[in-house]
Amino acid sequence: MDLDLVEVEWADGDGGGLRKSVLGAAARVAFESVPPVRRLASYRGQRHFTGWYWAATTESLVGFESWLERDRAMLLDHDRRVVGLASQPFRVSWPGPTRRISHTPDYFVRLEDGSGLVIDVRPADRVGPEDAVKFAASEAMCQAMGCWSYVLVHEPEPVEMANVRWLSGYRHPRNRVGTVAARLGEVFRKPRLLMDGAQAAGDPLAVLPTLFHLLWCGDLTVDFAVPLGDGSRVGLAAVGHE
């Protein structure tokens, strides 16, 4: 795809309105830090739910336009590779057979290696022919950029999502108590059951919030494919763990 034929429009974070460029010249824009390019609509009778999710990764609010998008924002916030996240970051348009086609991706993610990741979120049974064209074009654009990648995601795996949703309640840094975190690091140096380790580190009522925070951050590891509980096997993350 010729990136000089693709236009990108985004909101100026300083309140200066919208900015526009050809996509090929926009690689250096910090899209992970821009406000949404469009207003998150909310009205009586609305069939989808909009709102704002507080992301611990950026310590800022990230918009969503459905529960599915909210869950995806949560999963991205939990992902150790993610260092930046913005919703509805830009609008792209390109020449179609009879008119210009436009599309606003759901998320832009900055990864720890400096590359960008463009994400669309859509239920698997709601990808129509026009949507498929836009998603395929978006993927081709990202491939042409060279420093971006693209993914279309559907419903998350339910058990993993339930675990991440629970741990998200402990994502705020205030749950990391340094002395408790240090004890938990020692306790779980060899994998053991979650509640056994919590009791070994002190009063579980005082220890568990930090334990859950460390699981959220990935400093401690657990099998997210099974429901999280007292009998979950928890271990210390290896160096370089993702």
Query: Mind telling me the C-alpha Rg?
Result: 20 Å
- Strand arrangement within the widest β-sheet reads 2-1-6-7
Distance between the termini: 33 Å
What is the helix/strand order?
EEEEHEEEEEHEHHEHHEE
Helix share, percent: 25-40%
Q: Report the total helices.
A: 6
Low-confidence stretches: none
Class of secondary structure makeup: alpha+beta
* Strand percent estimate: 15-25%
Average pLDDT rating: 93
Biggest pleated-sheet summary: 4 strands, antiparallel
Total beta strands? 13
**Overall 3D shape:** elongated
Descriptive notes:
The protein is an alpha+beta fold and 242 residues long. The chain has 6 helices and 13 strands. The strands form 4 sheets. Strands 2-1-6-7 form a 4-stranded antiparallel sheet, with no helix packed on it. Strands 5-8-9-10 form a 4-stranded mixed sheet. Strand 6 and strand 7 form a beta hairpin. Helix 1 crosses helix 3, helix 4 crosses helix 5 and helix 5 crosses helix 6. The longest helix is centred in the middle third of the chain and has 17 residues. The radius of gyration is 20 Å and the shape is elongated. The model has no long low-confidence stretch (mean pLDDT 93).
Outline of this structure?
The chain is α+β, with helices and mostly antiparallel strands and 242 residues long. The chain contains 6 helices and 13 strands. The protein has helices spanning 67-78, 129-145, 158-168, 178-187, 194-201, 204-217; strands at 7-11, 18-22, 51-55, 60-64, 82-87, 91-95, 100-103, 107-111, 116-121, 148-153, 192-193, 220-221, 233-236.
